[in-house]
Amino acid sequence: MDEEVIIALQPAPARRAIGTAIVAALGVLLIWLAVVAPPASALWLAFLLGLGALALWAALRMWQATGNAVELTEAGLRDSDGTVIADFDEIDGIDRGLFAFKPSNGFLLTLSRPGPRAWRPGLWWRTGRRVGVGGLTPRGPARAMADAIQIRLAGRDR
After folding, report:
1. Dihedrals phi, psi of 42, to nearest 5 degrees
2. Cβ neighbours of residue 115 under 8 Å, at least 6 residues apart?
3. What is the rounded CA–CA span in Å between residue 55 and residue 24?
4. What pLDDT, on the 0 to 100 scale, is given for residue 9?
5. Integer angstrom CA distances of residue 32 from 36, 43, 53, 146
6. Model confidence over 21-34: pLDDT tens digits?
7. pTM score, two decimals?
8. What is the percent of the chain where pLDDT is above 70?
9. In what order do the strands lie in the sheet with 91-95?
10. Which of these, 156, 1, 3, lies nearest to 77 by C-alpha position?
11. For labeling, which of 9, 10, 105, 151 is most exposed (least CB within 10 Å)?
């Protein structure tokens, strides 16, 4: 049974393309540097090639992940592919402060119990009891989603 989506948070197409292109360009640049001006040490050559390949892999993962959206429902947060990010009964708090370790244009959730690690680059991540939402997402809808979560949490704590 599908739940009604209250707010959906999805990267704009231009932001998605530019963010992915920057990460891919880093990968291409590192590989190009290793081929055109190889370092004297084989270890450094392997490091440059590996880091370049890792950046290209990250760009591919970012492109795939940002095709989805983070959806706020009555039950909690989920990815548009159906992955549950956090249920409301697990959320202890939300942090949107300037110095919070959160994605840009996003917010950080603290959960009551640790969840499995997950990473959707440019969209959301979860490690232990922390969930970061944002990255390539626009600031306005992310703020509206954070406000809606905070209001729901305040109503639950009464």
Report:
1. -65, -30
2. 86, 90, 126, 128, 129, 131
3. 6
4. 92
5. 6, 16, 11, 41
6. 999 999 999 999 99
7. 0.84
8. 97
9. 91-95, 107-120, 124-133
10. 3
11. 151
Mean pLDDT of the chain: 91
pLDDT at 2: 65
How far apart CA 153 and CA 77 sit, in angstroms, is: 13
The domains of the chain are located at 9-65, 70-157
Q: Is the model's pLDDT at 1 over the cut of 60?
A: no
> Comparing 8-17, 90-99, 119-128, 133-142, which segment has the lowest mean pLDDT?
90-99
What are the start-end ranges of the H helices in the chain? 13-36, 42-65, 139-157
| pLDDT over threshold 90, residue 123 | yes
Instruction: Name every residue whose Cβ is closer than 8 Å to that of residue 14 and which is 6 or more positions away in sequence.
Output: none
Q: Report the distance separating Cα 140 and Cα 12, nearest Å.
A: 12
Place of tokens 């690690």: 117
71, 80 contact by CB (below 8 A): yes
